[in-house]
Amino acid sequence: MSSAPIVVHPPSHTAGRRVTVHSHGRDEILGTAYSDHDLVVFLEGAGIHEPDSILDDDSWIEWRGARAHHWRAA
């Protein structure tokens, strides 16, 4: 289990990946991202400054079930 506060979950069967953030002891769903751009928009909305700079930082984001930046269904 990662201690990263943001999780990009495995791609769904119809594509897209759910994005959650762990804050104040609970997980909050930010939405379903279909691209890096979508992910950046969600992170900006969550108050993260310069979110594009953390996309490959394992201390911030855990990519589950598929490689990072992969958005299509398996």
SSE string? EEEHE
Instruction: List unreliable stretches of 5+ residues.
Output: none
Number of helical runs? 1
Q: State the secondary-structure class.
A: alpha+beta
Radius of gyration: 11 Å
Please summarize the sheet with the most strands.
4 strands, mixed
User: Mean pLDDT across all residues, rounded?
Assistant: 92
Strand line-up of the largest beta sheet: 3-2-1-4
Outline, from the CA principal axes? globular
Distance between the termini: 22 Å
Q: What is the helical fraction, as a range of percent?
A: 10-25%
Number of strands: 4
> Strand-residue fraction?
25-35%
Give a summary of the structure in a few sentences.
It is built from one helix and four strands, in the order βββαβ. It is of the alpha+beta class.
Question: Would you write up a description of this structure?
Answer:
It is a single chain. The chain is built from one helix and four strands; from the N terminus they run βββαβ. It has one helix at residues 36-45, and strands at residues 6-11, 17-23, 26-33, 61-63. The protein has a four-stranded mixed sheet, with helices on one face. The longest helix is centred in the middle third of the chain and has 10 residues, at 36-45. It starts with 5 loop residues before the first strand and ends in an 11-residue tail after the last strand. The mean pLDDT is 92.
